[in-house]
Structures are given as structure tokens and as C-alpha cells.
Amino acid sequence: MEKFELIFNHINTHAEQFEQQEMTYLEGVLAALEGTLDGQFDWRVDGATKEDMRKAIQIAILKGMRKGSQPNHQMTPDTLGLLVGYFVEQFFEGELGKGSISVADLALGTGNLMLTVMNLLEGKIEATGVEVDELLIRLAAAAADLTQQPISLFRQDALESLLLDPVDAIICDLPVGYYPNEEVSLDYELCATGGMSYSHHLFIEQSLKHTKEGGYLFFIVPANLFETEQAKQLHKFIKNHAWIQAVIQLPENMFSSKAYEKSIVILQKQSGHLKAPREVLLAKVPNLSNKQALAMFFEKVQIWKENK
């Protein structure tokens, strides 16, 4: 049995026991993780890595999310996390060779996206996460502690005022939908002229506000981001404040239907000392099982990077 499976079995056993005590399974997962950290449970898997730990926790959380029905309880898949981590590595290659970079996720959730990137770029990320949901941020905190990855956490609505210093990079799987607090949305340039504002548009604006000049933003977005009724306003805002570096279309077979398809959009916050890229990288990630096509995709990224 794989090491991460042994760890999952430990979490699952205790979560199911807690579930019998009038908890949800997801709450049971949290109790199992926090209980392990508190030393209540003996948990040793010799030779287990940080990735083994992260994968085991992820599987347990996914099981809990499938049992529940809360729409905000979703997790960024490993594949997307690894792709985001790859692009962070490419855009910050020089800086990562000298030391670490500061990275924030304003919609941290359970922390799987951030922890995937941190494990990939071991020791190179100074991480900050913001999450409004108490259960999700406690799961993120426990997962970070158990994987020995330090993350500074803020539990609050990320679209309200943030006490967050500008960072080198933002990574975020944008929460999609309408933002219910219309009073807060009035403070944003991307506030809708009529009706409710899109929360994912406001997250883009808030993220840019908390990024250093010349810093990069890596967003997982709806594939139709620039095709909605508020897209014209968004495009104008981005043109005034950022440069689009890349739009990466993700494989259709990663999603259950066309309505859920996503892309990766990479922005750079404008700076007077820098110039816009000569051309935007427009690419489509092939089916991940096609190794030859995947190698060609990464080669295309490298050629673009050398010429940008």
C-alpha cells in the first residue's frame, strides 16, 4: 500500500468515528487532523513525504465534500495546482534561483492549490492565505501544519479591506458568481453598473491592488471570462492596470461539462520600469495522457518565454 493511502486510512478511520458523533464527515476530517496535531492519535508512516501527506489529506477532504452539498466547498485539482506551480516557476525563474518569493491566495479554501505549489517549489514560497469560511481555513491550517509548510492565514472576506502587504505573486482559483455585499462592491472599479457584481471580477481587482508593481497573477478562471455581459468592463480595467501575459486553455476532458470549463490567465501588474510582452502566449493544454503533445506544449511555452 502507498504511504499516502496509509495516511488516508488513518484520517478516514477517525473521521468516520467522529461522524458517528453527530459531525459531518468533513468536520470529522478536521477533528482527526487537529487531534493528530495535538498528539491525541499516534500517527507515524515512515518515509512519508510532504506530498504523501498533502495527497492523503486531499483525498479525505474530497470524500467529505462529496458527502456534503455546500457550493463553496470545492477544491482545486492537483493537475491545475501543478500547472500553476509550473508557470510560477517559469515567470520567477531568476528570483527563485536567488531566494524565495512572497505569494498570496485570496480564496485559499482548504489550501490545496497553495500547498501543491509550495511542495513543488520547496522552500521558495513565503505564503499568505485569506479565507472567509471557518471550516475551510481550519482545514487549511491543519494541512499546512501537517505538511510542515508555513502559511500566514487571515480569516475574513477577502473583498473587504485587507491588512496584506503587496506580494510578488497571487495565485487563485477564482470564486465564481455574484458577490452578495453590494455595499462593499461599490468601492471597486469593477462594480457592476446595474445589478450585482461578479465576485471573480472583484477578486481580480483586489488581487492587483495587493500585488507589487511588475508582479504576476496566476488565475484559474471560467473559460468564458471575456465573453460575459460584464466582460467589456473587465477588459478595460485590465488594460488600464495590467498586461495579459498568457491565456492557457485547459483540456475539455478535465471538466464534467462545457459550463464548468476553465482556463489559466496570467497577468502582470503594470510598472513604469517594464514593458508589455511582445505577444500574449495563447496555448491549449493537450490531453494529459498524450505525452508527446504535452512535451510540445511545454516547448511552445519555452520558445515564447525566450522571445517575450
Give a nutshell description of this structure.
The protein is α/β, with parallel strands linked by helices and 308 residues long.
Question: Which helices and strands appear, and what pairs or packs with what?
Answer:
Elements (H helix, E strand, L loop, with lengths): L2 H17 L5 H13 L12 H18 L10 H14 L1 H6 L2 E5 L6 H9 L4 E6 L3 H13 L4 E4 L12 E7 L8 H4 L13 H11 L1 E12 L8 H11 E8 L12 E8 L11 E4 L6 H17 L1
Parallel strand pairs: 1-2, 1-4, 2-3, 4-5, 6-8
Antiparallel strand pairs: 5-7, 6-7
Helix pairs in contact: 1-2, 1-3, 2-3, 2-7, 3-6, 4-6
Could you explain how this protein is built, in words?
There is one protein chain. The protein is α/β, with parallel strands linked by helices and 308 residues long. It has 2 domains: 65 residues, DNA polymerase, domain 1 (Orthogonal Bundle); 230 residues, Rossmann fold (3-Layer(aba) Sandwich), CATH 3.40.50.150. 43% of the residues lie in helices and 18% in strands. The chain has 11 helices and 8 strands. It has an 8-stranded mixed sheet, sandwiched between helices. Strand 2, helix 7 and strand 3 form a beta-alpha-beta unit. The relative contact order is 0.10. The model has no long low-confidence stretch (mean pLDDT 93).
Supply database-style keywords.
308 residues, alpha/beta, DNA polymerase, domain 1, Rossmann fold, 2 domains, 8-stranded mixed sheet, 11 helices
